[in-house]
Amino acid sequence: MERLPNRYPKISQSHKVPLYKGLSLFYPKLHKYFVLLTFFASILMKRTTLERYVIEQDKQLRLFQGLS
To answer: Angle 3-4-10 (CA atoms, 0-180°, nearest 5)?
Structure first.
């Protein structure tokens, strides 16, 4: 009986790639969504961090004005 050729390349253990790069090999559409998701998550994290920073600065300013 003849063996069918393997359609998928073997990835050796010594050549490990990050998950997002590994996804692009086998699931290009899933990789695209993963990139978009991480992009929007980073924007969201920056926004919430900035809001917390502004709120903290506002509290310190009010405290300073109350002492003067």
So the answer is: 105
